[in-house]
Structures are given as C-alpha cells and as structure tokens.
Amino acid sequence: MEYINVVLFTLLISSGSCHGELNFKTLDTEVGPVVYVNLLFRHGDRTPITVYPKDPYKDISYWPLGLGELTKEGIYHHFVQGSWVGKRYAQLLPKNRRYHQSAIRILSTDVDRTLMSAEAHLAGMFPITEEQKWGGIDWQPIPIHTVPEQLDKVLAVKHPCKKYHYEKEKLKQSAVYKDLMKKLQPLGEYVSKYTGEPFTSLRIFEYLYSILLVEKMNNLTLPEWTESVFPDQLKVLAGYSLAVPTWTPEMKRLRGGPLVKEILENMKKKIAGTLEPPTRNISIYSAHESTVSAFLNTIDAFDFLPPPFASMVLVELRKTAQNDHVVMVLYKNSTDPTIEPYILTVPGCSAACPLNDFEALLKPIIPVDWDLECQHQENVEPALNQRFDSLAIFGFLLFYNFSINLHFRWEFRKTFFNPAKIIILFA
Ligand SMILES: *[C@@H]1O[C@H](CO)[C@@H](O)[C@H](O)[C@H]1NC(C)=O
Ligand SMILES: *[C@@H]1O[C@H](CO)[C@@H](O)[C@H](O)[C@H]1NC(C)=O
Ligand SMILES: *[C@@H]1O[C@H](CO)[C@@H](O)[C@H](O)[C@H]1NC(C)=O
Ligand SMILES: *[C@@H]1O[C@H](CO)[C@@H](O)[C@H](O)[C@H]1NC(C)=O
User: Fold this and answer.
1) Cβ atoms 41, 311 nearer than 8 A
2) Cβ 129 vs Cβ 135: under 8 Å
C-alpha cells in the first residue's frame, strides 16, 4: 500500500499544478533569466522502423528512403524547432546567434535519423552570418558528437544492465502484470490476427501505433480493421508501453537515471564554473521517443502519451533575483512555433524548483555508480508484488469492458487523462 499512496500523492500534486501559475512569456522577469539549458529532443518524422508481416505497405517501394530514416518533413520540423530554440535562447548565444564552439555541445545517439535531426535543428538555430559565409550555400557545418551504440550508457537507453533486466523480469513475472496481459488478451489477439505479429508484450501496441501513424501521415489508406483501435486505443497503450521500461523506482534509476544525472551535473558544473569550457550555456541531446519518455517518466513528469516527432524537453537553469538557482522543465510537444511549451512540475516541488530541492527529490533515481549497480544480483522477493498496484489499476480501468464502444472510449479518455481521478476512483 505504501507505494500506491506515493503514487496517489504525487499524481494529485502533479495534476493540480500541471501548468503552474507561471506564465511562459514572463518567466524571465517572474523567475529570473536562464543561465543554462539542456535540450533533449526526439528525432523528426521518419519512415517506419519496421513493417508488420501482413502490412499492405510492407513493400520497400513504399519507403524509397529506407526504413527508419528521416523524411523531408522531419528535416523541416527540426529546422523549425531549431529556429524557435535559437530565438528563445539568443541571450545564451554569441551575438546574432553566431555559432561558436564555446557556447554549445551537441550529443546524438549513433543513428542516422537522430544525427540528421541534430543537423537540421542546428541549421535552424544558427543562421549563417555575413562573416561566416564561405562561398557556397547558406549553411555551415556544426560538430555533433556521438558514441557507438554498444558504448552508449546515457542516451540510447538500451545498454545491457543485469540488474535492470532482472528488475524488468520481476515486473513481468508479477501477478498484476500477468493479470494485465490477460485482460489485454482479446485486444492482443485481435491485433495479432490482422498483423501476423505474435502478442507477447505491450510492445506490439507501441510498434503498431508508430507504424500506422507514419502510414497515415504519408496519406496511405489504413486497412479497415485498424479503425476500431487506431489511433485512440493504440495511442494510450503505446504511451503505457513507453512507461514500462521505467515503471518502478529501480527501473527508473537504472534506465532513465544516467541522463537525469548528466543533466543535473551540467547545471551544477555551470554554477561551479567547472564545465569544459566554462562558457558553455547549452547542451543538446538528440535521441528517441524511448529516451524522452524514459527521461520524463524517471522524473515523474510523463503524460503517458507517445512523444510526437521532434518533441523537445527543455531543462532550464534560472538565476533568481536573490541569486538562487532554480530548475524548470518545459515540454514542447508541438512543432508549431506559435504553440508555447507546457511547464511541467516534478511532483513534490514547484514549477520553478530550487536546484538543491530538485537534486534531493531525484536522489533515489540517480545511480551513484551505474556499472556497479548493474552487476548487483538478488533473489526475487514475492512481497514486492504490491508495488505494481498502479499497473493493475490501469489494466482494470482500460479492460474492465474491452468492447470497442465510442461512449466507453470517451468516458475512458475523460477519466484517463485525469490521473488524479483514476486514483480517487480506485484508491
Ligand atoms: C553564455 O550566456 C551568457 C549570458 O548568461 C553570455 O553573457 C555569454 O556570452 C554566453 N556564452 C557564450 C559563449 O556565448
Ligand atoms: C498528404 O496529403 C496532404 C493533403 O493533401 C499533403 O499536404 C501532404 O503533403 C501529404 N503528405 C505526404 C507525406 O505526401
Ligand atoms: C503535450 O503535452 C501536454 C502535457 O503533458 C499534454 O497535455 C498534451 O496532450 C500533449 N500533446 C501532444 C500532441 O502530445
Ligand atoms: C461491454 O460493453 C458492451 C457495449 O456497451 C456490452 O454490450 C457488453 O455486454 C459489455 N460486456 C460486459 C462483459 O460487460
């Protein structure tokens, strides 16, 4: 029961102050200017990463760029996001938003679409100045750092970790998870029948949502069987599937923890003057939907919706009039430059959270020595099952009556999108 009380408590807090009392436009005067920003984004629109066995569009001729590659729309959207970022943080950049190595560092996962997204983003962020013209097109090369996937323990969120896989297995073996899978069985079988993909985990819904969304965005007509499940039901399940890798505190610590730790350290080093170089004002991380959802869920600010293409999390360090440092987390999940980002709140703190409080709150999910913690082994304790209660609530709510029924879905949406209400109903 203890865990569920924590969930109840945190959801009540976060839903109450979701948008905060702060106004996005006046943060500089209300809170204080930004002195450092960490930017984590998902790559832009891409072709499907994979197709399903019975996919009418599985022929590669539908995807001339190849699978999982950034499209023209993806390039454009990141260019637009980059211009928005450049304008918003112009005071952190050299005059005229001129690119200079001392102001920024960019890290990308070692994947074509994230590397390309970072390039498009930077082209929008740093319009070439007169003195930077070099005799060709109005574009300049900007360095993007990367780490091979097998060595990436921070951004790719899939580096092998024994303890993590053990924790994940423990979740999957828990009675409530098994019960959830049982409740999902009818939907799983339905989807499995038409896709030709076996139903073994929630991942099938995540993959399918992502494939159908891309096909729809490419103006392909979706098969009739998808109408009852796409987009609404699959979107909700895809969102939950994205939260599963960071479901428990232990999983958060080992999966999302390393990136949260790095971002926190960037800000602390900025204040201490120990960044390399100390003049650096911006860190950019170009990654995936799984990275964005892991980061947000690890700090308990995830909305359980799949992060759209080119969505961005902005972790700002601001300096108040009293010379204190506060952290703000913003989420820009739209590529429309006129749509303001959402101000997220880490449960237990205010939207402008004092850095020390932010660090103290997140301490339990920050690994001290990730490699060492990953080695750790222990035996399964059946008593731990109860901490998965919140998953059971979700399962119950969603599959209480799995019949595809518009009224039900509407009721469900109304309830689902208000987590506090779910908890009140079932606590
Ligand atoms: C970093 O931001 C400060 C303002 O907070 C600015 O004075 C400084 O020039 C910026 N650094 C670089 C390298 O542009
Ligand atoms: C899909 O159709 C819309 C409306 O005709 C068009 O604006 C858009 O460019 C098309 N998208 C693709 C990827 O062809
Ligand atoms: C964007 O994020 C906000 C806050 O989490 C959420 O309410 C909204 O539905 C999201 N929109 C999209 C398109 O994901
Ligand atoms: C589920 O809902 C449908 C439509 O509202 C109804 O016909 C059906 O009997 C319900 N099933 C159960 C098990 O309650």
Assistant:
1) yes
2) no
- Beta carbons of 48 and 211 less than 8 angstroms apart: yes
Minimal-distance CA residue to ligand 4 atom 3: 403
Q: Which domains does the chain have, with CATH numbers?
A: 24-158+246-374 (3.40.50.1240)
Average pLDDT over residues 70-92: 98
Span 155-199, pLDDT tens digits = 999 999 999 999 999 999 998 889 889 999 999 999 999 999 999
Alpha helices, H only, 161-279: 162-173, 175-195, 203-217, 232-243, 249-255, 257-272
Count of beta carbons in the 10 Å neighbourhood of residue 110: 15
The confidence band for 245, taking pLDDT boundaries of 50, 70 and 90, is very high
Q: Which two tokens stand for residue 155?
A: 């951004």
Residues near ligand 4 (Cβ within 6 A)? 401, 403, 405
Mean pLDDT over each residue of the chain, to the nearest integer: 87
Distance from Cα 214 to the centre of ligand 2, integer Å: 12
CA pseudo-torsion sign 169, 291, 4, 409: negative
First-last CA distance in the chain: 10
Tell which atom from ligand 3 comes closest to the C-alpha of 334: 13
Rounded to whole angstroms, how far apart are CA atoms 423 and 292? 25
pTM of the model: 0.85
